[in-house]
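WARN no homologs supplied; continuing
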Amino acid sequence: MLLLTALMGAAVAGPVDIWGFGADHMGRGGGGVALVDRPAGLFLNPAGLIHMDGPELTIGYALQRVSLRSLPDLYWDTNRDGAITDADPPLSKQPGQLRADGVQTSIGRPVGKRFAVGIAFLIPVDRLLRIHTFEPSLPHYLQYEDSPHRFELTAGFAWRHLPGLSVGGAVQMTSQSRFLVDTTLTAPVGLAEAGDDGVGDLVGPVTLDLHEMTLDLAPALIPMVSVDWEVGELVPALDGLMLAVAYRGSAGLPVDTRVDLQANFEVSDDESLGPLIFSALAPIELSIFDHYVPERWTFGVAWRGERLRLFGDLHRVAWHKARLNVATVTGGGVYSQVLQLESPEWVDGNPYAFTLEPTWNLGGGGEWHTRKLAVASKAEFVRLIGRAGVAYSPTPLVSQGAGTALLDSDRLTLATGVGVEHGDPLGLVEGPLMVEVYGQVHPLARGTLELPETDPPRPGAPIDGAPLPIGGMLWSAGAQWTIGF
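OK structure emitted
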């Protein structure tokens, strides 16, 4: 049996961890854990749902792109002759412009004065999920080449028991899968005769029969808990001060795959012996772990005034437990009537070593709300909202071995957004309506990765001998419509 274990999980949970969710939080750079008062804030602080003024539905569209620096041509066995020589054309591997656009929707409502519920989800428009392993000797960005491509869904609640103190819980949903392929390959083989030019004249039509393919998807839930405290409820002198703590567990997307391959070889040209059939069984098992969601602690402080709001966030992200999406051979065998290899010595073709460390991410910013301006229409009032935020996310990559070319760097987030809140001019809903737009840029710190010089050249090394460039730009822009009902 051939057993391969593909350990997957580039060091980022998904698009929400990169850009945020909802126009208000994305306009603050994905921050404001102590300012959550809308269902879109479920990904940050479910306890903040208790601050909702009434039922609310949001629908938005987010443009989310990743543009990384171009890479040089690389040494590689491109002609597949088993050696890297001058006969191999250079390999061009470019991270390119990655698109992760999606539709963002959230809905929530208070239930009495002490309880609130909500749900929020992001549906990518290009692909719901991308599972992709990579060759560790080739340049690969840990955080941005695969993980932005996935759906996100969180449902939760908030409950207030003590004055000003609320607790919340939520589950963030991912999935686990089982993929089974049962197939038979049949290749009739004839006996050599005069005039045959090669092996191709001896092998008849090859038949590949896929008997069965099964893909099972099962939900996997990531727990979230949080505490939200309005300090002024207990200490009037500190009216407006908000504190919040949130915890999210870790998880990922395991995909257990089994390929049951049976190869039949039939020799049928010998009339004295009749047809001879030989079969070989080569079951292949793969365990894939993708989209690692790291354990995260978030601490937030904010001041909520009548028109001005300020916030600061601190995130501890447990990247040191992350795993790479690299296939690793651990054992195998081939079984047939004439051949059996049960315990050969297997040498992994993808050796790698790396070290990640937990990171402390910082963020801060604020919002400004104008007074409600009365208007002579059924809309009744108009209010403008402006917001801005900045965040800093250091790279978790500390070191790596000579056989890898992992790329990553520190990331700075700059964000801003505006909104217009007004009454319903048609009188269809009770609550206010709001239209919001936002924009973000995420410059990645520029740097280089020096690869050791070897003779012959190391696979994946730049042909010109220069170091690999690191850096690029992420950006996001979008709009959101909110209905209070």
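Residues 15-19 form the longest helix (5 residues).
OK
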